Description:
This protein is an alpha/beta fold. It has helices at residues 32-36, 43-50, 65-80, 104-112, 128-141, 165-168, 216-220, 230-251, 269-279, 290-293, 300-308, and strands at 15-24, 28-31, 54-57, 89-93, 118-122, 148-155, 173-183, 187-195, 203-204, 227-228, 261-264, 317-324, 328-335. It has a five-stranded mixed sheet, sandwiched between helices. The protein is built from eleven helices and 13 strands. The longest helix is centred in the last third of the chain and has 22 residues, at 230-251. The relative contact order is 0.19. It folds into two domains: 15-184, Peroxisomal Thiolase, Chain A, domain 1; 189-339, Thiolase/Chalcone synthase (Peroxisomal Thiolase, Chain A, domain 1, 3-Layer(aba) Sandwich), CATH 3.40.47.10. Bound molecules: coenzyme A. Residues 41, 45-46, 49-50, 126, 165-166, 169, 203, 230-231, 233-234, 237, 267-268, 271, 295, 323-324 line the site of coenzyme A. The site of coenzyme A (COA) has 21 residues, from helix 2, helix 6, helix 8 and strand 12.
Amino acid sequence: xxxxxxxxxxxxxxxxxxxxxxxxxxxxxxxxxxxxxxxxxxxxxxxxxxxxxxxxxxxxxxxxxxxxxxxxxxxxxxxxxxxxxxxxxxxxxxxxxxxxxxxxxxxxxxxxxxxxxxxxxxxxxxxxxxxxxxxxxxxxxxxxxxxxxxxxxxxxxxxxxxxxxxxxxxxxxxxxxxxxxxxxxxxxxxxxxxxxxxxxxxxxxxxxxxxxxxxxxxxxxxxxxxxxxxxxxxxxxxxxxxxxxxxxxxxxxxxxxxxxxxxxxxxxxxxxxxxxxxxxxxxxxxxxxxxxxxxxxxxxxxxxxxxxxxxxxxxxxxxxxxxxxxxxxxxxxxxxxxxxxxxx
Length: 344
Ligand code: COA
């Protein structure tokens, strides 16, 4: 557990900055009206309780998280015309890998032609991207690596029970990610990350691992789907995310005026609002796209960075924050290192 005086990322002279962003969204839109035809729910309940209007679904059964992560990686490389052979490490955060092994990151590494990279998956549920970003940053800070891809990718529709109204309204499919490169001054400068395994059973996919390998019993018991106790998870998420953001602001002497944007994991608009309120940030300084994509697990934070990239300016201070299964949660302070496309 990080404490106020524990060394974090960003303590060396060499920082890791985000230098490119990419994303992939499937075309198919699953709207609240579609869900009304599938389970006993309604648009008004979903919008007011979660903030979600529609989500994207990867309908093609022959494609999964590796496909989406590969598309996001290709977009990252294309924006800067980067030779894939110069990528040193590929990290994919996901709870919906194409298969348990090989790692989805290895599939991406092969598809994009990152012939000199090593690659691994990162499992921290909705905190996967945040924790993966810290890991990637420390690889850069070590001085050993120059270019690290960190991608969040989740085909949540593959593990969603579309007869369970309490979960099927929440999730969508997407991938998004960033390129990390060394920087003298800007980049990831501090993190507070936490885990509390005592509550793992409140949000989990119990089947398919070595404890409950696939069998008729696990399929009949729906153990391969997401299972969530929404109400207690909500209570933990609201307090833990806001606590993590307050902590990172306090230990960096930041007031709301110093933070350009809050970049929160998109699980529920009400959780985001409560966190922003605690930080004293107005709505226009909070990245929110949950209405269009739902909860895409490891993809939410980089998807926000993609959607807001054009508005970002060199030196903008961003507070990234997440809460998810595990439980896992935290906040990170990221100073943006380039001007967005419409900066003039
Ligand atoms: N449509 C209509 N009614 C629904 C419904 C739906 N899709 N889902 C649940 N309900 C009903 C419940 O049955 C319950 O009815 P009852 O009062 O008659 O028993 C009522 O709505 C309230 O249910 P509750 O579960 O207390 O709702 P909620 O306000 O907690 O909202 C979630 C449910 C899942 C949206 C919310 O708990 C949540 O966002 N949890 C946290 C998610 C999260 O952060 N996850 C971690 C990161 S992935």
